[in-house]
Amino acid sequence: MPQSLKETMAESSTITARHPHAATAPPGGLILDRAVLQAVPNCSEIVSIKPCGDSAWSMSTARFTVKHDNDTIHEYFVKIVDGDLASERVLGEYQCMFELSKTMPSLVPMPQAFGPCLDSDGFFFLCDYLPIDHRRPDPVKLAEKVSELHRRSMSPTGQFGFHVTPYDGKLPLKVEWDRSWVSFYSKLLRGVYELDTQANGSWHEFDVAMRVTLEKVIPKLLGPLEEGGRSVKPCLIHGDLWEKNIGTHVLTNGIYIFDSCAYYAHHEMALGMWRVSHHQMTNEEYRDEYFKLFKPDEPVEHCDDRNRLYSIKERIMYSAHVPGTEARTQALDDMRYLIAKFVE
């Protein structure tokens, strides 16, 4: 039998004394944190609670179904995050997903609430639940959705960046507002490089290549985007658009994106993720379909080199998350390629 809201909240305060992480699964079933229940509007009954998916950087995830006071049924997804910077990470995810939903609500599960838990030291993120799977996304449909997001979006400041710190997994991105794309990307890449150095230690060859990339490659490769009367539009990008953050609705086949670390960037930046070998969307069809709808910026002949440069950020971020992987060496190879082409 479904539980009433008051019954569930009353049980929560006693059960979570034995199970300090209220959204985990004790033998008697899943128990929602009281803060999550309070964030659900006009809830009269908890119909069901089930584990849902997984997250490398979260404490627990679940889906639950509720009946509202008007007898309508609604499904939600909740993520509980704990540990260092949990509040900042949850705030970042909510604000990123909210910004995406404002720009293109048909593309994301609607974010509902976030905040501190009452029955643990964690923080929760709450959004609508959608029945999606992680099949290989259709390149044409994905290109249509992502290019539309980029075209529709409008930076509130006219600059590159974001108003809060987004977290790529457990690590923060440097996205302070900046009018120049060259300057913004330099600071973004430097910040990721510093995170990687903290995780993996210093490596002389890598450090030298990064210094040359920051000082010489980026100005030479990205500078022409902002010269000769040209400019770069700051577009809202997802920030971490790999296959596990893209879902296909099992009933409508619609494309949805989630787990965002969004910010306003050059639209081509979004495609750097589709080059790296530690993810599966390396087929050039994805980039080709996108560029049919949102053309590369001039100079077009440097588009692939810019994509390589943007992928360096993705490789290094992965290396910072998973120390010892070959992604760091691959980033070095890419930097050396660009240095040979644009500097030496």
Plain-language structure description:
The protein is of the alpha+beta class and 344 residues long. The chain has 9 helices and 13 strands. A hairpin with a 2-residue loop joins strand 8 (167-168) and strand 9 (171-172). The radius of gyration is 22 Å and the shape is globular.
Brief write-up:
The protein has 344 residues and is an alpha+beta fold. Helices cover 40% and strands 17% of the residues.
Tag the structure with descriptive keywords.
single chain, about 350 residues, alpha+beta, 3-stranded antiparallel sheet, 9 helices
Judging from the principal axes of the Cα atoms, what is the shape?
globular
Rounded average pLDDT: 90
Distance between the termini: 72 Å
List the uncertain runs.
1-28
* N-to-C order of helices and strands: EHHEEEHEEEHEEHHEEEEHHH
Strands of the biggest beta sheet: in what spatial order? 1-2-3-4-6-5
Which strand-content bin applies to the residues?
15-25%
Number of beta-strand segments: 13
Main beta sheet strand tally, sense and closure: 6 strands, antiparallel
Helical coverage, percent range: 25-40%
Q: How many helices?
A: 9
Instruction: Specify the structural class.
Output: alpha+beta
Work out the radius of gyration: 22 Å
